[in-house]
Amino acid sequence: TADAAAGALPPRDWLVELFADTTLGPLQRAALLIGRAPGQPLDTSALVCACRGVRRSRIAAAVESGAASVDAIGEATGAGASCGSCHAEIATIVAEALKAAA
Question: Which of 12-21, 25-34, 87-96 has the highest mean pLDDT?
Answer without folding.
Answer: 87-96
